[in-house]
Amino acid sequence: MLTGKHVAVIGGDARQLEVIRKLIELDAKISLIGFDQLDEGFVGASKVQLEDVDFTTVDVIVLPVSGTSNEGEVETIFSNEKIVLKAEHLKDTPNKCNVFSGISNQYLKKIVQESDRKLVELFERDDVAIYNSVPTMEGTLMMVIQNTDITIHRSNVVVLGFGRVGMSVARAFHALGADVKVAALESELLARIYEMGFEPIELSNLSNEVQETDVCINTIPARVLTANIISKMPTRALIVDLASKPGGTDFRYAEKRGIKALLAPGLPGIVAPKTAGKIIANVLSKLLLEEQNNIEEEQS
Amino acid sequence: MLTGKHVAVIGGDARQLEVIRKLIELDAKISLIGFDQLDEGFVGASKVQLEDVDFTTVDVIVLPVSGTSNEGEVETIFSNEKIVLKAEHLKDTPNKCNVFSGISNQYLKKIVQESDRKLVELFERDDVAIYNSVPTMEGTLMMVIQNTDITIHRSNVVVLGFGRVGMSVARAFHALGADVKVAALESELLARIYEMGFEPIELSNLSNEVQETDVCINTIPARVLTANIISKMPTRALIVDLASKPGGTDFRYAEKRGIKALLAPGLPGIVAPKTAGKIIANVLSKLLLEEQNNIEEEQS
Amino acid sequence: MLTGKHVAVIGGDARQLEVIRKLIELDAKISLIGFDQLDEGFVGASKVQLEDVDFTTVDVIVLPVSGTSNEGEVETIFSNEKIVLKAEHLKDTPNKCNVFSGISNQYLKKIVQESDRKLVELFERDDVAIYNSVPTMEGTLMMVIQNTDITIHRSNVVVLGFGRVGMSVARAFHALGADVKVAALESELLARIYEMGFEPIELSNLSNEVQETDVCINTIPARVLTANIISKMPTRALIVDLASKPGGTDFRYAEKRGIKALLAPGLPGIVAPKTAGKIIANVLSKLLLEEQNNIEEEQS
Amino acid sequence: MLTGKHVAVIGGDARQLEVIRKLIELDAKISLIGFDQLDEGFVGASKVQLEDVDFTTVDVIVLPVSGTSNEGEVETIFSNEKIVLKAEHLKDTPNKCNVFSGISNQYLKKIVQESDRKLVELFERDDVAIYNSVPTMEGTLMMVIQNTDITIHRSNVVVLGFGRVGMSVARAFHALGADVKVAALESELLARIYEMGFEPIELSNLSNEVQETDVCINTIPARVLTANIISKMPTRALIVDLASKPGGTDFRYAEKRGIKALLAPGLPGIVAPKTAGKIIANVLSKLLLEEQNNIEEEQS
Ligand SMILES: NC(=O)c1ccc[n+]([C@@H]2O[C@H](COP(=O)([O-])OP(=O)(O)OC[C@H]3O[C@@H](n4cnc5c(N)ncnc54)[C@H](OP(=O)(O)O)[C@@H]3O)[C@@H](O)[C@H]2O)c1
Ligand SMILES: NC(=O)c1ccc[n+]([C@@H]2O[C@H](COP(=O)([O-])OP(=O)(O)OC[C@H]3O[C@@H](n4cnc5c(N)ncnc54)[C@H](OP(=O)(O)O)[C@@H]3O)[C@@H](O)[C@H]2O)c1
Ligand SMILES: NC(=O)c1ccc[n+]([C@@H]2O[C@H](COP(=O)([O-])OP(=O)(O)OC[C@H]3O[C@@H](n4cnc5c(N)ncnc54)[C@H](OP(=O)(O)O)[C@@H]3O)[C@@H](O)[C@H]2O)c1
Ligand SMILES: NC(=O)c1ccc[n+]([C@@H]2O[C@H](COP(=O)([O-])OP(=O)(O)OC[C@H]3O[C@@H](n4cnc5c(N)ncnc54)[C@H](OP(=O)(O)O)[C@@H]3O)[C@@H](O)[C@H]2O)c1
């Protein structure tokens, strides 16, 4: 339990509600900043203005997935007020206060460093990335069903990359009856691809393997779907690019060739905000509980 | 091959293009009625007006999935002209001329009977229903992903009915990691449900099994989702009703209880018109080829 | 509950112990005939000699899977005494007494008819056949792993027949990564084979589809693996014939061609006697409970 | 192609035949040492005695999976002669000559080092371990089917470890319908376990999760199945220990408790020697071809 812990939850979207729910379950004391328009009442959580928070009592700061903007602004869909997080706020906190966000940027890193606090970027964690690969995969399924005139079943699917997202995506399309090829570099990934029933492609050989592609799903954050590769695909092919912006596709060339190519960022928050929120809530609370246990052990 | 066979394709939507393509492949002589606005040219198929067709030379008539309206009108998305099929047309055809449609109605049955021809309702066939269960299943996945805020993975799914559609739907949700229960009447269906890794529910016991339902998919064309059953579901549940109109759900009660319930007819033509067209094309051509073989065998 | 019901369990093997266990659970009164060497004590079941049974009090007779021999002898592995069931025994029972066995023969049918009782052959039931298809499938896996020098994963498997056993077998080999073809006659079976991700073969076309076969599993109780078909297989192929004796394989020809062919009857009792026993116990008790409910309803 | 390359294959079992076959396919010049009793003739491979080999012409030395004994002896099932590999042999070879084995030991490492050659232990490679996880998994299935009286389907299976073998094993049991729990330490493994549809167990919490275990499969090469854990299992449980000798099980305690526990080393060579041989052949030849390409590129 987190009894006695004071957590400041600043901004966010539907996902943050799951975080709040979990923290309440664990009996934390919660201040909600940027939630004034939230209808739902949370017993045990009080809505406050940023300027009214006594940061000297705050043990944990929880930012939204996006962290802050480069000007320090914290996004929230539950308030119209502008919320800017500053180094001063952090400096006021007790030494052990940690800051949690999904991703971060220069600004956030700077203010955390300046105030000598610790920043935990949850989306950098392998476990979070794997849990998130599930809603990402389902969003991909949805997009493919919507944007093709054929079934996934018995279609020719090529997945690029076999990391945390690629494995989940390949497994799902295969489970629905597609013929799945997966392109990767390392020999042990190619071995696992083979073991899982997909056809392994050496990435260097990709251009010879896309002639019959109905759907190509990219998870590699590098320019892998070059004009050369795209020129080998049939025009009926659909490209769904999951890699973080700007994706790995030569979108200009795809359009020229008449191939539909879609960049699809942020799927978990779009197709399954509740599950995406629970993922964050679970990992965050696990980390907080572990930290607490460590402190208790040290003290005893 | 269907060399020498004269097929009149009357009306339809994108699915019919696959039928035409297949018939051309098989070297049939094709008259297209109601396709004047079709851009795509088909070598070997000529666009004609209904009144210009010489039905005495027509060996096969292919209607759209919907057959005719109760006034004899044949739907087409490739023409603005009104096309009405009459008994006279059929009477002109050679004795052996068969009429193919997806489904039929009183009008169509009557004119076929009057003219002493044979009507083949393709959608009544088990094989067609099973092939169509695949795009139906994918459309269902899409709707569920769109209309819930959680992932299918690890959700509680209840499928009602384990016929041609129910089996495909249950398999897909299970393959994506859902906990799947399936409700059916017969003991052999319950046994297969168990073998396939789903939890069998006796339909009579349904009301005790829906307390934790996230998604309920109905394939039984009878009022099974009564107010009583729906009242036992959590309000977060989503109902997707696939059964032919009016579905098996008490939609009025679902709305009252605040449960989202969607009637989702005609999914194959919506989410995968090309695959849906190929299904028709394959079965139709197989039937035509078999008939031809039979005639040749009789003659030899 | 079966309180007050008197069940005579006559003979059997390990499977019958599960039946006894279940009946005790349901509070039946049980007489065990042919179990004198059984170490395990069952509270609520008494071991008796056939001649000491008062059949006028017996409500249900449970025979082993095999029923009786053609001389009326009932097999048991728990006794050395010879047990012969006769029409006289049955005639003594109350009118409503039913006889349960797995399969039956002329003798058993005759004595049941003579005494005007009802015989239930559990193995004729679709649900029992489907439940049993699971241990049958696992036994088949075991035999294939033992009798080949390659993995099932990525091997070429042909399954003949897509009934209760064929579907379970095809699903399992596919799940383990084999390329699975399934041969059947009916168009709706071919459609389901396709939907499930296997390659459908029309049985009439089998001879053209076995050139690359590593493993062929027959479930069709008819001579389908003829010399002609076997001659098209590579000599490395393994045939496992599950169909009831004498199987569907030309074993003489297979041997001549140097192809290993195994007839594998009775797998459930061999590889999973406990599960096989539970299958019988569950269905038997469900039938007894239903019967009881019906009687109670009639009486009320 | 390996045209012109001279490969000395020294000793081995059935797996080595696949290696020889592959090398011949690639047009290598092959000397077979320790194969005098091999019936099968390989065109392009000549059987020689160790003392007759001109090692100054040997480009590659291929040892069996086991490498050598600690006295330098090389196992072979195709000869009765004793073959001892010595540093002298290696010293005679050209500088670039590499030595391939499955595993190695002090002796082999020493003579390779003394002669300044390179040793490649194929079984240390991730890709080889993953490919081998497939026959290992199938051998495990076979053992479990043989050694239990229930079906894998719907049984409670606990897999310890989620590395190269653990993942393949868990996937297979799940695919056959078992309820699979997997125990691991790292949070990202636990996340993948969850994504794949298994129930994740923190290894530290194992003792609370084995009460209902029917089958426990260990892949962790450390003493994880302690008396404490085993004491929590039901006596019906079966333990299959795949970890390299001495396994991770307290076998003495398991026996005392009446729990069957089997140490099962070397499954790939036992249940699928041909596939196991092809795995070695494929990786070996890929490495030789890559090396050759590198040399050619350097030279050009
Ligand atoms: N659209 C969405 O909603 C969504 C959701 C989640 C994640 N994402 C994005 O999807 C991408 C993949 O995420 P992930 O978690 O799967 O990452 P990951 O685990 O790091 O996997 C990336 C894969 O790409 C390969 N790769 C990386 N750089 C490469 C290069 N230059 N050349 C060839 N291969 C390369 C990696 O191979 P190695 O292992 O050999 O490096 C790995 O197979 C990221 O950009 C992530 O931001 C998008
Ligand atoms: N939405 C779409 O896009 C779409 C696409 C295809 C089909 N459909 C519709 O979906 C429905 C199912 O199609 P299908 O091909 O799966 O049909 P099906 O094979 O006949 O299956 C229907 C299932 O419902 C059961 N059932 C029928 N009447 C029942 C009753 N009164 N009480 C209890 N159970 C009953 C059947 O059990 P028994 O076998 O015991 O009768 C069977 O399990 C139909 O209405 C069809 O028109 C919709
Ligand atoms: N070895 C064992 O341990 C074991 C265990 C269980 C069962 N069995 C045996 O396995 C066999 C199959 O059992 P099952 O329960 O799967 O039976 P089933 O459900 O009747 O299936 C038999 C299959 O064979 C087809 N078939 C039957 N006769 C045919 C013929 N003359 N030509 C072409 N196809 C034909 C059926 O097609 P249609 O549906 O079109 O007729 C069906 O696909 C039986 O002989 C049974 O006794 C053995
Ligand atoms: N019986 C056979 O026929 C056969 C065939 C192949 C392999 N094997 C043997 O099977 C074993 C597993 O092989 P593998 O290729 O799967 O190895 P692996 O990929 O290294 O996997 C081992 C697993 O055990 C975990 N682990 C290792 N040491 C641990 C410890 N002290 N405490 C807790 N967890 C620990 C690892 O977790 P981390 O990743 O966190 O370290 C990993 O999950 C090896 O002993 C191998 O020799 C046997």
From TrEMBL, chains A, B, C, D:
Q: Which SUPFAM superfamilies match?
A: NAD(P)-binding Rossmann-fold domains
Listed Pfam families:
AlaDh_PNT_C, DpaA_N
User: InterPro entries, from UniProt?
Assistant: AlaDH/PNT_NAD(H)-bd (IPR007698), Dipicolinic_acid_synth_A (IPR014215), DpaA_N (IPR031629), NAD(P)-bd_dom_sf (IPR036291)
Using the record's annotation, list all stretches that form the Dipicolinate synthase subunit A N-terminal domain. 6-123
The residue ranges of the Alanine dehydrogenase/pyridine nucleotide transhydrogenase NAD(H)-binding domain are: 141-291
State what protein this is by name. Dipicolinic acid synthetase subunit A
